[in-house]
Amino acid sequence: MDESLAFERERVKRFQEHHLVERYHLRPPYPPETFVILRGLIVDEPRVVLDLGCGIGNIARPLASFVDRVDAVDSSLAMLERARELPGGEAPTIRWLHGRAEDVVLSPPYALVTAGMSLHWMDWKQVLPRLARVLTPRGLLAILNVQQAMPWQQAYRQIRRRFAGGFPALKPNLVAEFERYGLFRLLGERQTAPLLMRQSIEEYIAAQYAYSSLAGLDSEQRASFEREMRELLRPFASGGLLSFEVTATVAWGKPSCHD
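-> C-alpha cells emitted (259 positions)
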C-alpha cells in the first residue's frame, strides 16, 4: 500500500474513536462572523446546505435555523452521535447522514456546500465533480479553515512534530491544490475578525488529542507529551488561563465537473 494512502486511512480511522470525539469540543470554534459570511453565500432556492465531514456539527448546528435544511455528512458514527447530543443537534432541519462524501446518498439540489477542514481526507477527483453536479445554478462550495495565533506556536510545532508518529503535515492550501488540478474555481475569500479564546493548560493539552496526528499516542507517550507541554505553556498562562486568537478563513467558488 502507498505510504501516504496508509497515513490517510489511519487518520480517518482515528476519527471513529470515542476518545478523540470526546475531546473534539475543546478544539477552537468558528468565530460567529463565519456564519454571517456563509449565510451571505446562499442566494438560490431551495435554501438547502450540504455540510461535508460535519464532525460534531460545528457548522451544521449554527446554520440550521437560517436555512430550509442541512444535510450533515460524516463517515464517523461516533461524531454524528455526539453531534445529536449537543445544543441544536436535534433541530428538525438537520439530517445527520452517516457515510462517505464520495458515495453517500444525497438529496440535491444544494444552494451551498460547506467543508470545514475535512476535504483533506476525501478523494478530490471524485468529490469535487460530484459537488458540481449537486449544486444549484448559483450554488457555491465554501471551504473553511481555522487558524490560531499563539505566542508559543513555534515551540509547540516542534513538540508536535516529534510526537506525531511520522504523520505528514496537511497541505497548507487546499484551494490552490484544487485549482492546480482544475477541480475548483475560486470566486472569493474572506477572513473573520479574531475571536479571543481562553483555555486552561489542561484543556488546551486535552484538545490536542482531538487531532488525528496525536490521537494515537500510548500512555507513556502521552505522559511525556503532557510534561513537555506543561513546561512550555506555564509561562504563558495568566490566572491559570491561556489566551490566544482564533480566526476563520472562508474561500468560496465553483467546483468543476471535469473528472
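The first strand starts at residue 48 and ends at 52.
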